[in-house]
Amino acid sequence: MDVSSFLVQSLNSVQYGFLLFLVASGLTLIFGILGVINLAHGSFFMIGAYLAHWLALKTGNLFVAIALALPLSFLLGLAVERLAIGFLYARDHLYQVLLTYGLILIFNELQRILWGNDVHGVPVPALLSASIPLTEAQSYPLYRFFISIACIGVAAAMYVVIHRTKLGMLIRAGAANREMVELLGFGVKRLYALVFALGAALTAFAGMLSAPVNSVYPGMGEHILIISFVVVVIGGLGSIQGAFVGAMLIGFVDTFGKVFLPEAASLSVYAFMAAVLLWRPQGLFGARPA
Amino acid sequence: MRPIPRSLLGILLVIVALLAVFPQFVERYYVQLATKIIVMAIFAMSLDLLVGYTRLVSLGHAAFFGLAGYALAVLQRDLGLVSLWTTLPLTLVVCALAALLVGALAIRTSGIYFIMVTLAIAQMLYYFANDTKALGGSDGMFLATKPTAELFGVAIFDLKNRTTFYYFALAALVASFLVARMVLASLFGRAIDAVRCNEPRARALGFTTWHYKLAMFTIAGTVAGLAGYVGAAQDGIVNPAFLSWHQSGQALVIVILGGMGTLYGPVAGAFVLIVLEDVAAGITEHWLLFIGVFVIAVVLLLPRGIASLPLGDFAGRLFGRGARKRAAAEPGDD
Questions:
Q1: Residue A288 falls within a domain, yes or no?
Q2: What ipTM goes with this model?
Q3: What's A173's domain CATH number?
Q4: Is A103 on the interface with B (CB under 8 A)?
Q5: Are A97 and B252 within 8 A, CB to CB?
Q6: Class of domain B6-325
Q7: Which residue in chain A is spatially nearest to B287 when comparing CA positions?
């Protein structure tokens, strides 16, 4: 592998890592604060991608589509929290798994009813369709850079919100000790709904961004869900920092696994997870021993 | 382990008797549907050993179900083994070893991690089967023939006959049920009870709880392997769907729907869910929508499953045995 293709693969790894981070951070936030394991998290990724596809087709512009789809997915997250997840805070994880499994069946079927079983491509916006030449033979598509930059922007905004605002303070406090926040008189119900909807919107945003690169297809939500489980298990559940490190590690392991071991590409991330678990069962940044 | 209430025992025996004569009276399609229900019942019962009796919520139980199917296919194709007496024990050994290995890794974690890790490991097998050409990739593998049941050169029964196959599956279900009861009634089963109710205390009493959980995981994986063996032999094909997490999710739904920690609950759950799926699929192509709504309704409205419905009371009144008094006197589970 020469230097320039190494560079291209590294950029791909980072870009994939950032997308995974958006999905996994939503998952880990929802678990850390609401104490809920949300299998339907991947469905929001799928819904984001399909909304981007559909609205881009209607409006002719991906950016307008994203601007419209973001509030929609936030509202959808709010609705799901109020109508389903909200009943489960006091219940065992087992029931959370089942209820969110039922949600997946519903979302998948709605997707089939609304958009059918076909794979749809989403055109890269003309503004970003160029490629950056690296050497005579290799170039890097501008849109992939855009994904990374957008993700960095979101990650930075998340950092500021979590560490510099009152909402962030509540989120951190809620993650550390939910009962105490409640006892101090803060409206935990509203905080929960807000965090769930934000997590849903983050994941949907990742789906929208990735739609032009990966196209949209049935079952895309489940694939990303299971990979983000792997990310979260590696990073440590409830830790945003862990989600970031886990996402980047998986980004690299997956991308370079496909280059060096193409026949075992889909196994590499799981083998990596098994190795991490043998070493640290609670994940790299997991606070309590599991 | 709680004994089966005597009034329910009556119901169970009646059901088994009905199941035994059932194929004589119905069309072939329903015999096949019933066989499918039995396969899912065995599979869900094995998961109940983990979820209901050990509080290990696995979302990757299909790994052993599918592994058994692939083991049977590979034994047939590559080793030329067709006899039930060789392929079944070998398949079960493969599943037991796999469960031991997976369990050793997964049981290092607990709670929500355990759910995710079992899911991820099952998914790894799924992709392995899906991407390996030697295993037929996404098309899966065909089984050239049903397992043969010859003893000293004489065919005792012929699994190519659908009704015979149904009885074979029914025997596997009854055997799994009895083995599971035996395991749970043993001293080992008592220790598992202790691990479920209060693991730190069990550990303080000197039990290496890790070993007990791993042993239970292995037993459950082996029984799931039996279900997979019967399922693959019935379908005549094994494909990655056998390993998919929808298979695991469906089994979990069945366990909760039927009532976990009962063994007979999952059998009832399998019956209700598979029949419901069959009916819904006959009405609309988008039947999964109904199943999704149904699953959510069960979680919200019937968290302890069909087994928590006062069927025992009902049967007691029917047979006049005062089951209500006995049910009231029974100690609670946790």
A1: no
A2: 0.83
A3: 1.10.3470
A4: yes
A5: yes
A6: mainly alpha
A7: A109
Q: C-alpha angle with apex B189: B185 to B191, nearest 5 degrees?
A: 140
- List, for residues A42-86, the tens digit of each pLDDT value: 999 999 999 999 998 888 888 888 899 999 999 999 999 998 888
pLDDT in tens, B92-144: 999 999 999 999 989 988 888 888 889 888 988 998 898 888 888 888 899 88
Task: Give B164-233 as a DSSP string.
Answer: HHHHHHHHHHHHHHHHHHHHHHSHHHHHHHHHHH-HHHHHHTT--HHHHHHHHHHHHHHHHHHHHHHHHH
Q: Residue B31 and residue B19: Cα distance in Å, rounded?
A: 10
Q: Pseudo-torsion of CA B160, B163, B167, B170, nearest 10°?
A: 100
**Number of domains forming the structure of chain A:** 1
Q: Which of B53, B101, B112, B246 to probe by mutation at the A interface, max A CB count within 10 Å?
A: B112
Residue A285 in domain? no
Among all chains, which residue has been given the structure tokens 């960095």? A152
Residue recorded with tokens 């037993």: B219
Residue in chain A closest to B132 (alpha carbons) equals A263
Is A180 domain-assigned? Answer: yes
For residue B303, give the nearest of A95, A230, A270 by CB distance: A95
Alpha carbons B256 and B44: distance in angstroms, whole number: 10
Mutate which: A36, A101, A104, A232, vs B, most B CBs within 10 A: A101
User: Tokens in use for A247?
Assistant: 């996402």
Report which residue type is found at A218.
P
Query: Chain B within 8 Å of A233 (Cβ-Cβ)?
Result: yes
Q: Cβ of A104 under 8 Å from any chain B Cβ?
A: yes
Q: Tell me whether A137 touches chain B (CB under 8 Å).
A: no
Interchain contact, A270 vs B252, CB within 8 Å: no
Distances, alpha carbon A168 to alpha carbons A33, A34, A159, B200, B253, in Å: 11, 14, 9, 35, 37
- Which residues does chain A have within 8 Å of residue B301's beta carbon, measured at their own beta carbons? none
Q: Summarize pLDDT for A257-283 with one digit per residue, the tens.
A: 888 887 777 788 888 888 888 788 788
With CA atoms as reference, the chain A residue closest to B254 would be: A98
**Which residue from B minimizes the CA distance to A86?**
B300
Q: How far is the C-alpha of B79 from the C-alpha of B93, rounded, in Å? A: 16
**Of B105, B123, B300, which has the smallest distance from its Cβ to A226's Cβ?**
B123
Residue B185 corresponds to which amino acid? A
Query: Residue A289 falls within a domain, yes or no?
Result: no
Q: Which long-range contacts (CB under 8 A, 24 or more apart) does B157-162 make?
A: B159/B84, B159/B233, B162/B28, B162/B31, B162/B32, B162/B35
Interface contact flag, A102 B293, Cβ < 8 Å:
yes
Structural domain boundaries in chain B: 6-325
**Cα angle, residue A252 at apex, residues A247 and A258 outer, rounded to 5°:** 125
